[in-house]
Write a structure and sequence with these properties.
There is one protein chain. By secondary structure, the chain is of the alpha+beta class. Helices cover 24% and strands 35% of the residues. The protein folds into three domains: 2-152, Nuclear Transport Factor 2, Chain: A, CATH 3.10.450; 156-265 and 405-437, Nuclear Transport Factor 2, Chain: A (Roll); 275-391, Glucose Permease (Domain IIA) (Distorted Sandwich). The strands form four sheets. Strands 11, 14, 15, 16, 17, 18, 19, 20, 21 and 22 form a ten-stranded antiparallel sheet that branches. Strands 10-9-8-7-6-23 form a six-stranded antiparallel sheet, with helices on both faces. A five-stranded antiparallel sheet has the order 1-2-3-4-5, with helices on both faces.
């Protein structure tokens, strides 16, 4: 019996040494396994054969529709333990909210008291590249329970400068540079108010980024992080944005070089001093004389009153269109377009394909098309569907001033210094031209 216990404890101790290096928290983490060692020793004779062979480690890739309960059931874990494990995980995330593609690691042994069932000793579930949930079997007195904790990996953060010349699309360039996709999509949302991705991005467009890059303690690469700076050469100018948080309580967002938030608010009213004469929704049409959904709002104003673009964008349509009369559609970003109908005449230079700025005059109030009097019929189109313009929640535009502007300028200058040093090193052959790490 003493020999069996000695062999079991020796195997456990070697397993723990193999898994954990002696960092600051190594002894604390090893102490966490003491209850498991105790369980093995108490059941050494019955479990000697399996303990000697070691625990079975299983890696499971989460698929669509998978939940933690379902995956544990398939491994033969008893229902009452599945409930305990789920409760332990619920401290950090819902057991039903597993991300497709995530790999879960389980360590199991056969349950000799329940043939066909297994015992879970250890589970890890990655949350992201920097954190994971760890659940382990513990024992206190005669009670067995499952303990969970959220563990942050100890990674070294560096800043990486990369550049590319777009050959087909911005997405393909981002993929070629290995950018973090979540960070890239956040960048696209920030640039959406400054760049028309369908018209402005062409073959030969220069693209630059400075982003976070994380490395493990042994120096191997882990993953890329947030994009702190990006630039695109479009329309003969260079668009630059910086990922910056003005205050500790304010989430970061992209700002232009001037310290103005890249995401812009739409004008609430395209007609100054115009009053709303008809709201969005069902109404009796004044000409057709039957109930019909009014898919915009009407602003009553004298003929010739200027009509302003509610935001930057491209003119998708400018011309005559049935009951709309003289009609202008402006696409602001990949999500929103605005439309202006019954115009008396178009603004100077307004035609399809022209880029307009917020507050540019795109036409004048009139009564062309199916209208009983002078007014502007105004629509907001969201992903191809007309919605109530008054319900649109556009982000407030922020202009940095004072200490916030000073902090931003310092942050911006530090990133530009990294860029210049990277380019100098590349020209002089000191480092790889495409990837410069600081």
């Amino acid at each position: 019996m003493l020999l069996i216990k000695g062999l079991v404890f020796h195997v456990l101790f070697l397993n723990m040494l193999a898994e954990y290096s002696f960092s600051d928290d190594s002894f604390e983490r090893m102490a966490k396994y003491a209850p498991i060692s105790e369980w093995y020793l108490e059941n050494a004779e019955r479990n000697f054969e399996y303990s000697f062979l070691g625990q079975q480690e299983i890696k499971i890739d989460v698929r669509r529709g998978d939940t933690l309960n379902l995956l544990l059931q398939k491994q033969g874990i008893p229902h009452y333990e599945i409930g305990q494990i789920s409760n332990a995980m619920a401290y950090f995330m819902a057991p039903t909210a597993l991300k497709v593609g995530t790999q879960i690691t389980l360590r199991l042994t056969s349950d000799f008291e329940r043939p066909g069932k297994k015992r879970l000793f250890y589970l890890t579930l990655p949350i992201d590249e920097e954190k994971y949930i760890e659940i382990s079997r513990q024992k206190r007195d005669e009670d067995t329970f499952f303990f969970s904790q959220l563990i942050e990996k100890k990674l070294e953060k560096k800043l990486l400068y990369q550049s590319d010349i777009i050959a087909s699309s911005l997405f393909n360039s981002a993929h070629a540079l290995g950018l973090n996709l979540d960070a890239f999509y956040t960048l696209v949302q920030g640039l959406d108010y400054l760049v028309d991705f369908q018209r402005d991005i062409r073959e030969g467009t220069p693209f630059e980024v400075i982003h976070e890059s994380f490395y493990r303690p042994n120096g191997t690469f882990s993953h890329h992080g947030k994009i702190l700076y990006a630039s695109l050469g479009v329309r003969g100018e260079t668009i630059r944005v910086y990922w910056f948080s003005p205050t500790a309580s304010m989430p970061p967002q992209y700002f232009t070089e001037e310290g103005i938030s890249a995401m812009k608010a739409f004008l609430k009213n395209p007609v100054r001093a115009g009053r709303i004469s008809s709201h969005f929704g069902n109404r009796k049409h004044p000409i057709l004389n039957f109930e019909k959904k009014h898919q915009g709002i009407d602003f009553a104003a004298p003929r010739g009153t200027p009509v302003y673009a509610i935001g930057d964008g491209y003119v998708e349509f400018a011309g005559r269109k049935g009951g709309y009369g003289n009609y202008v559609v402006i696409r602001h970003n990949q999500r929103h377009s605005s439309a202006y109908a019954h115009l008396h005449k178009f603004g100077k230079g307004i035609r399809k394909g022209v880029r307009v700025k917020q507050k540019d005059i795109i036409g004048h109030v009139g009564a062309t098309g199916m209208a009983t009097g002078d007014h502007l019929h105004f629509e907001i189109i969201e992903r191809g569907r007309k919605i109530n313009p008054l319900s649109v929640k556009s982000p407030p535009q922020i202009k940095l001033e004072g200490d916030q502007k000073t902090s931003f300028e310092s942050f911006k200058n530090s990133l530009q210094t990294i860029k210049r040093q990277s380019q100098f090193q590349a020209v002089n052959g000191l480092r790889d031209e495409q990837k410069i790490v600081f």
